[in-house]
Every structure is written in structure tokens, then in C-alpha cells.
């Protein structure tokens, strides 16, 4: 089982994660992690902070000579901006009220964790909340996702993500005929990480206009994974169902408000006969489906078809326009009028979404297959793939169907 | 922490669950559990099996003189149909191939766990899968949900569920002005558990027509919970975010393909300025929001507004119309043409959805508050409610805002 | 991963457990479970209640045609004495103070959970504690242990337990040359489950005399498991160390106060040079040790030698002799003078100890090997056994040691 | 719930841990952590490496202005020796066989994880095992233990540890009359951390002689905790029993082979009447016991008496004297003859033992009491302490004992 905890404040010295439970002998490429971290910082519609931080990861345990040791990995991403925040984020006791008031926050921003976090944890200074609730934390989840994606890739499992809707403008192209490689290429070269370039211009214009208006935009991202073994997850217990766990992963990304698999909410508008994925078989391919309305998951398990999952990200809470809030000490209303830099972070969200899905899929693989060492894992996955094409192998004794 | 495991095959002697971690001294009303179980069996569009089973629960541990003991609860729901399945579901070894073939399944149904489960677990007889993957299991989740709902109710937290869309027909009424009591009354008297009676007739006609066509319908259900303390869940770690956990709970219900909170996917089409829930304060009410686009969750935590969450259920896989599948032994295609009885189970799904959300919310409450005994829990919740209205209480030492 | 929860009050209708995570296709023999349950009820020095209860298990889920389904197992053991306790243990509300006082306990027994449990859970009637804290619960752990022992046995892993000390009298025989089969035979035919028959008579006399004196005796039990694959557990994280987990399992048995592995506490009195298990190798046997001071565990992992673990059980709390306690309501001292029937339960404790160790070892096996189906598990274990004899297989690329 | 993962190789750049689940607002004193780390490095009988490393901790998240934030803490302890191991412990790929052979280990040491770890994880170089299985990891557990001990101390819970036996020589003094403060003072000034100074000289001589002989010594350490609330842990489920969990914590320390609570193994030699802790009551003190044979734990719960737990540490595996092992590649026997520096690490083990017990007790406290913020925790603990002295408070409705 994979376990990991992420840590770190947004303006503290660094973000850290420890990942426990990876097989020994898995090749780890640090550049690939840095590449994903860079992708998280891109995307049309971001402001300036992104340029300050050029995130790179340092690995301080669990890897030797380019491979995992079976012991826990420590990943550290420094916060480059920390040098300007040393005294504000100091761990030393500070009994000087003046000094403590520097950068203190007592006016909670709507749409953020500020107010609730302050009440829950008895924080006098809401900075104590926002430093951790910040989406900066997603850098760590991307780093973890890149490690797990490297595991998936070594097992010939591919995963991509792209933006399918931004600011209400949906990509129109039918991507069902594209390979994941093509999808990745198209998304990578798009400033808004859309596959359908015909909508790109409209989206960019909308972002520009929205920026001028001091407003923000949300959107929908999609993650697709191919090559997964049949039977990850299980119907036998509610908390083993992979669809539930993928939903948890996706919805736990900052600002996500919905998740859907396959046809998702659209499926409520169809007849049963329209959404059945009929079953076929060839010896080469094994069992497969003639369609993929269910997004690769049946009975809470992967069925061998691509896993298709979408998440919706709300617009970044904006304070450009005066918004009513309440000072937590004076209890007086005030109208916030603070500038912020990002118009949309949906392209970045696609990178995060891919990362968390990669991580959860890896978890499901490790649950199903032996994984003390990567060599064992790979052999077991490949041998199971052969088995699952050839059901003769599971005829352990049944009667009259000779 | 609440732990529970459900067990039981669809035609086995019984379903069982053990619930561990409930406070001692919580009043448990068996009739309320039976009432929820009955509601799960209702709903226009169900077939005949529902009439066979009149589910009632038996409690064999953890309760004495009408209150929990602090020890684990065992809940058992007998499968009344089991008497006809004794030999087929026997636990005794059976080496007679003829006898083993009785009711054996070797033709997997599209849209079910049959095929994948058979491959994963090396089952020669797919009955071994479908007996457990059946939605019959949701009876147990409803029973658990009723126990946890009783806990919520004792803490003055209310929760309701209803059908907001069925067969593509959406309720049109604005329910935002209705009390939960009214919503419950309206849904309870509706054969399709909709609140908006103006659409009911259209929905019933659609169900009737669909039944004649041998087809099936899906839909969308909504759960609303009110009265929750501020600050359930946490932003401090990805797996503590309550939105993610609610999504997991909802998506783990059989046949659910999507989940959304508050404005959900619609939020992708709005500007940031349109979806901000501004903050207000009165001494009586404490902090609250002027709107509820975010469905009661900010930063992965309850913010004191009603929690609003929806899930989409796909149409029941139907085999009325010939569907292609493959015999797992002969590998030959066949066209299934089997009758089934339910046209839609969306009304029932609303009962299940309410149950799983009640359970997860209870979990979050138990994590936040002391809960060895219910008396402690109740006191702590009430005292925290007072505290959270009055932020003076959390001024532990800050400087210059006297 | 194996999960299980046990439930049930001592005089309630039944004990129940649900076991989740067993592989599909594992043969389950109900008679073997009943046999272990019977052994738990035997042993010289028990009183009369043991004759009332002749425990037998009923399986109501998870098994079909003699094999596991991969879905959760429900095991139920009826409390035969329940018929005399129906009203006292009723789950129905009871507002009649007179009736509630029947069999109510307000005088906590020293050495039991009564007083602490009452305080912790706010129980007015300490019966609410003792019904669950009773060692009756160990029947369920024995049932689980028998299921997991069946799994171990199918993998050619053997496990035995016996009493090595009772009432201060230690077995003197060197059992290191005996096979586990012989140990089991000797323990099985001994009324006190000792292997060394030369001490048996002395032990029985001590029990008889102690019974006449109205006193009780404790003792030490040992569990030995052979045939375990090398490398169960792990040094990579503190909570993966198998020695810690076995200690937890053993110490969680009612009334156990100590646990030791291999030479245990004696090892503190030896020089390092005396307790080293030197390493040897033959192609047939693979790597092995020339001695077993460390009881089969190095670095928190099985090393291929027999796992040897002991636990100490305190004498049953006795109230034959007047003992001071305090009435929880009047706060007055009283001297308890209640009769009880068991002089010692150490022989039974050996059965429980074996069960919990079998369960934890099974857990460790399932963590290391694939286990959706038993056929996969068995193949993987056997193939790994071959591999671990032949380290050529793990030369994945190293340099100059040809 | 407290979660933590430790990471780091012995000669890698640093050890790291992330601790998740601590309350917000807990004062954290870094010097106290460093003080405990220093104590772990002391003790008569250690060799020279201890002088190289002067461990100090760096906190990079979770603390601000001297208090916890409620977010995860990251603790980092640099390995000062790492500068000499940069290339050997490099995370960069290394395809040069010569270079990879530097400091490679192919001769497993008896009594270490080397051989088993190599087999389990398919490591060609056993250094990949020993870097992590090294007792160096205990520095991290001491750091965690110091953080949790600070929490305990703030709740007026005290905890000490000392060496009660070393090299077969037991302390003779009756410490039952000493305060924990006195025990700590005596142990702190003893070079072997014994309380009984009369045995100190003999122990030191034995260490000196053993060092000259090239041998090693083990011993027994005891941890005592006072001031714990009544009712930590629970009898309601096997894995909630605190005795089992403390045993797991203690036994998971490197080289520990046994653990006992209260009278421990000696209790097997006593009559029941000799080991009963009779119950008494005064309004000031509440319920208490007239003795403490059971070491503060009844029914798997703290009973208000001091928790007393001992662990036995085996002698450090020694290679001074030629020991037989087998080269994993050539399979040839060899006789190891390598020098090492420590004669005994039992004094250090007492520091580690205290740390892991402090951590597990903290876990149990967090499970029982609300702990989002330390202020809530402290209030709840104190209020419960009052309650538990005064059982009138838990008379919620019972009948005829007015």
C-alpha cells in the first residue's frame, strides 16, 4: 500500500512529502518530476507569482543510483519566495504584538478556507490557515503524481490530461479517435491545454477580457488512462470501489466541485439501451467493449477500457470586485478590493488532476500485485495481462462446458 | 473513528454489517431503520422482487435497553428469498458438476461486474460475482445510514434526499426557499421522490413508456444536510478534505457515475464574481454566507451553510433489448434477451445517497468531537456551536485589535 | 489487506465477526473451526460455564460450495446461555428502574475493565462493560484464527501452541528437536496442553490445590510457526515490522501482560557472541541459520527460521478471597466475596495465542503476495520460495562478482 | 489521529519525518528536541560514530511563532557524515560497475536485516538494506517522541525511562517510592542511565571487560508515565487495546525482543490473590488502586495508575569474533572479522523507548479527546479529569441507588 503525507506552508522554507510503499528498483527520473512541476506553473491566464517560483524537486531519501530502494522517498520543493518571508514565517516564538501583526490576516476571503479554518483551529491570525490551504500544496501532489506516473509508464500504462472546457467554452472536437500521444501533443502545445485548437482563440480572448474585467474563470479537465490491467479496485466492499476512490482523489484538489466518469451526468438523460458497453472477444485482445460509456469502470473495477474521468474547477475566488466579508475581530463588514494575479488556473488544474489520478491508479495496482520489488511487479502485471486474455486459465474445475 | 464492513450475498441467508466506533448511550430506534429500509424498496418503476423482500433489521450486539453500549453493533437483514436458494448458495463443498451448474452464470452481462469480477477472482461461475456486486448490498448501507442519521438528528442536524432529475426530466421548482421538512414531505409523498409535483406526471409517463419499450432510465439525486457544525473535514491534508470523502461515498454507490457539490459542473460556466458566497455576521447567527454556490464546503470543510451534493445514477443495465456479450467458456458471441423487472431505481438511489452521506458526515463529526459517550459528544458539539458564533473566544493573545 | 471486526456481548444472542480481504477460492472447513473452538473450551482448571457453551460457528456469507468467494465472511457463534438472559440483554428501551436493576453491576471487580470502562463510557450499569470486555470475545478470535490457519496450512505453513509454564512450573523438556506435529500431539493429549509430560502431574496438583484455596494461576504459552516465506514484514517503516505487530496481537489477548520472541528477556543476560544466528547455505535449503536465538525474526522480518513467540497470561482475577473495591454510587468500600469457576485458563490461552498469531502472519503474507484468488497466492508463494533459495535470480545487473 | 512516516538512509543527506494530526497551538521547543537527540547519542559503551553526529533538528513546516499550526510538521535531521558518502549514496543513475562496487555489501551480517532484506527487495547490494535498517532511524523516532512528550508535559503528564538491567546486572533499588523527577535525575546523571547507583560500577566494569573481549551486551529498559487520564485505549475491539499498541511500539524498536507491562512475566509465578490491584476512593483523588501489579492498564485501558512498561534489547550483533556467514554471490562461507565501535546501546535504547511510548500515549489521548486546537484538548482533558473523580456525573438516569 502506498502512503504519503504532504507538508509545507506556502511561504515557508519548503514543501515536503514522504512517499512510503513504492517497490524497490523502480527507475526514478528527477527531470521528469521537474518537467511536471514546470507544467503546473504554465498556462495562459496565470499571473506573476508563477514566474518567481521555478519549482524543482530534491530527493533526500529512498533513491540510490537512479532507482528506488524500497524505503520511503522524501521529496522537497523549496519555496523560492521564502527569503522574503523569513521573519513572518519564523518558527521561533514571537511575543512582540507589533511584529506578529506583520502580514497578519483578520479579514477572511470568501471562497477560501480562511474563516472556517480560523474558527476550527482557534487561529488568531488567518495567515495560519491560508499558508496551508493555498493551492501551492498541489505542487507536492504533482511531484507524487510524477513519481507514480513513472511507475505506470514502466508498466506500459499511459495517462494524459487536458482542458475540455474553460470559461464556458467547450472543446468541440471528437477526441475518441486520437491516441493518447496525440492528445498529449496537442494539449502540450496549447497555451490553455486544450486539444481542440479551433476553440483556443475564443478561450484566450475570453481570458483576456475577463482579466480586464478583474474577474476569473473556471473549467473542466479530463484525465484518460490506458493500458490498465482488468480488475483494479473491487466490488466486494464499498471502500474498495475504484470509482469512489478516484472521485475522492479528484474532488480533494483545491477548488474542485464535481467529478464524473465516462458519460457522467449526461448518462441521466439516456436510455439504458444507449449506454451499454457491449462485450466482444478476440484471442489477441481478450475481452473488450464495443463502446466506453462507463469510462472504463464497471462494478467499481477497471474493465480494460480507457479510464475517463473529469473534474470541474470553480473560478478562483476573486477580490477584484468589492466583495462583502467581515473582520473577525471588529465584526464589521468591509468590502475587499484586493488585486490578484491569476485569471484562471484551469490549465494547471489539468496537470494536478492527472497527478492525483496517476497516484490513485498506482495505489490500486500495488494492492492487486506483489510489489516489494519492481521486477516482481512488472512480471506479475504482464503475466496477469496474458492470463486475462485467456480465460481457459481460470477454469479451475467447472462442469459441463467442455 | 467509525469503521464498518458490510457482508452478504444477494441470495445468501442474510446481509450483515458490523459498525464499530459509535458513542455509548446513543438511542437507537429499530423502527427508524426499518422505515428507511422500506423506503429503499419503494419507488415507481421497481419490479416485483422488491415485494418479496420486506427488509427488517435485527440487532444482535452493541445495543441494550435502547441505547448503544460503545461496543460494535451487528445489524442483520435476512434475505427472505434465500429459502429458494439454499442448495445453490450452500456453503458445503459440492463436487457434483451437474449440481454446481444449477443457476451457474457463464454469460456476463454488460454494465455489471460479472466479467471483470470473474477474471479478477478466477471464478468459474459468475454467480460468485453477481451475488456480491448486486445492489442488494445497498440495503446494508441504508441500515448504517439510518443509525448514523439517528445520531445526526440527536445533534439537531437534519438531512434529506430527493430526486431532481429522472429520465432526463428535471424538477423545475426552486427549492431553495423550502425547509428540509417540507422537502422531505414532498419527496415522501411523491411516487418518484421528486419535490416538484408539476413534473411528476411527465416522469411517470416516461417510466411507463420506457417499461413498455423494455428499456431503463437513470437520474440525478440530491442530498441536503443542515445544522452541521462549522469546520468538519480539514484542508491540512488531501485525504481529510470532506468534499473528497463525500465524493468517494457517493460514487461508491452501485451505478453512480458522477457527483457534484453546490453549483457543481455549472460553476465552470460562471465568472468568479458570480459564485462567491459573501460573508456576513450577526451575533445570533454567527458568521454565515449570503449565498451557497459552494454547497456548504470551503477548503474541504463545512462552512455552516447547508451541504448540498448530487449524484448521477446510470440507467440499470438492461437486457430486454438484445445485447452482445461473450460466453466466457465457448468465447462465442450471444445475444442476451433476458427480462428484468426494474425500469428505474433512481427513487431508491436517493435513499441510499442520503444514507452514505449521513454516514460520512457522522464520521467527520466523530473525528472532530469527543465521542466515547453520546452525552460528551452532544455537549461538545453544542458548546462548539456557541463558540463558533462568538470569535472573542479564540483571541488567544493577538495584538492590536482591541 | 485483511480487515476484521469482532462484535458481541457475552450474554447477548451471539458473537459475530466479518472478515474482509481473504482470497477467493480458499477451501474453508467449518469442522476445523469448530474443532478450534472446542479446544478453547477445554483445559484442566476450567469451571462449569464451558460445558454450557459448546461453541459452533455458522457462516452466513463469503463462502459457497466450500470455498471463499472473495467477498467478506460472516462468522456467527451463538451464545447458548442467552436464553436465560433475554430480558437482561434486551435491545428494547426499558424505562422501568426495577427491571433495569436486574443483574446490574455497580461494584467493579479489581483486575477487570469494569471500573475504567464505566467511567470512560459513562455507563451507569457496569454490566454494559463486562459483557464486552469478557474473554468470551476470544472465541471470535479463535474462529478467525482457524480460518487464517487453514490458509497457512494450504501454503504448507504449520503453526502450533502449547503451555510452557503454568502456576510457576515450567516444562523442562528440550523441545527444539521435536517436530511441530509431535509438539501438537503431545500438547493435544495433555489436559494442561504442556509438551513435557513429566511436569504435568505437578501442574495438575497445583491447580487442584489452588482451586481448593479459592485462588487462581497464570502461565506462559508459546506459539511456533514453520514454513513461512522469508521476508514477511519490513524494516522500512516502524509499523511494518512484523515483530511489533505480532507483539500487538499477542498483548491484545485478554489478561496478557508480556510477550517475547526467541530468547526474549533471557537475551539481556547473554553476550552478543552467544546469541548470533550464524548464516549457512545449501542449494536445497537455501540460506538458513545455525541457531534460532532471534526466534525467526531479523530486522522486523521473517528470516526463514521458525517464528517462536511467547506470551504471559496473568491469573484470572479472583474474588474468592475478599478483595477491596468501592461501590460506584455509594462510594463505600466493600469486600467482594463472589465465587467463580475457573482456576486457570492458560491452556485455553494457548489456543487463542495461536489464533491471533496465525491471523497476523496471514496478514503479512497477504501484504507481500498477490491474493485476489488463492490460486494466485499459492503460485506466488511457491515461486518466491524457489527464488529465495537461489539468489542468482536477484542479480539484476551488478558488476564484478562473477 | 496522529500519523507519521519516517524516512532517510543512514548515510544519505538527512533523516526526515512528517507528523500529521497534532493540534494547533501546541508550543514546540526545538531545544527540547535537540536535548533528547543528544541523550540518544550518549551512554557509556558507545563508540566513536556518535561523536561525529551531533544531531540537531530543523523544522520546515507546521510551526510558526513557536506553536503548531495544525498542519503537518516536517522534521529534518542532517546526517553530518553524508559529506563523505556523497558518491556512494548518490541518487543519480550509475552504470559504472566499478563505481557501484564502492562500499557495496555482499556479505550479510548475522543478526541484521541484510540478508532477508536483500532477498525480499531483490537488492544486488546489501547496502541498500542496511542504510535503512540501521538504528540510525531511531533518531527520528526520538524527535517525534520529543514533540509528543512536549504535548504530554503540557497536559501535566510526565514520562521517564531508565535502564533496569544491563549485561545481566539488575538495578536492585526499589524505585517505587521515588518520584518520576527523582528517577529522571538519577538516570540522567548515570553514565549507563541506571537509577540504582550501587550497581553502576559493576555495570561499567562489565562494559569495559566486554569491550576488551570484543563482545557486546544487551539489557532491559523501563518506561513509566504518570498523570494519564483514566480510560485511554478500549476493550471494545482488539486493535484498540492500549497494551497491545504499546507492545507494538516498543517491539518495533531495532533489536528489541520482548516487552512486558507491570509485573510482566513474573506474574505467571504468582497466585491471583497476589496480583490484584484493589480499588479505593477518596473525593480528592477519585478512584485509585492500592498496588500496581498490572502496570496501569486494565482491560486494555489506562486505569489512572502509572503506566509501567519494559522492553528487552538484545546485544548489538557483533562481528568482533569470527562469525559464519555466506557471500550472497559466491555462496561461499566466510568468517567475518570486522571491528565495530559500540559495546552496548542499552542506555540509548531507554531514550528511544521513552519516545515511542510517549508517541503512542499521545495517539491514545488524541483519539479520546477533541484536538483540533491545543486549547480545546487541554480543557477537555482537565474537565474529564474532574469528571472521572466524581462519578455522580455519570448517573444518567439509573434507578434505585439514590
Automatic annotation (TrEMBL), chains A, B, C, D:
Residues 87-111 are annotated as: Disordered. It comes from the Bacteria. Pathway: Metabolic intermediate biosynthesis; chorismate biosynthesis; chorismate from D-erythrose 4-phosphate and phosphoenolpyruvate: step 7/7. Gene3D superfamilies: Chorismate synthase AroC (3.60.150.10). FMN binds at residues 132-134, 254-255, 299, 314-318, 340. NADP(+) binds at residues 40, 46. The keyword Repeat does not apply. It catalyses: 5-O-(1-carboxyvinyl)-3-phosphoshikimate = chorismate + phosphate. InterPro entries: Chorismate_synth, Chorismate_synth_AroC_sf, Chorismate_synthase_CS. Belongs to the chorismate synthase family. This is Chorismate synthase. It comes from Ruoffia tabacinasalis. The gene is aroC.
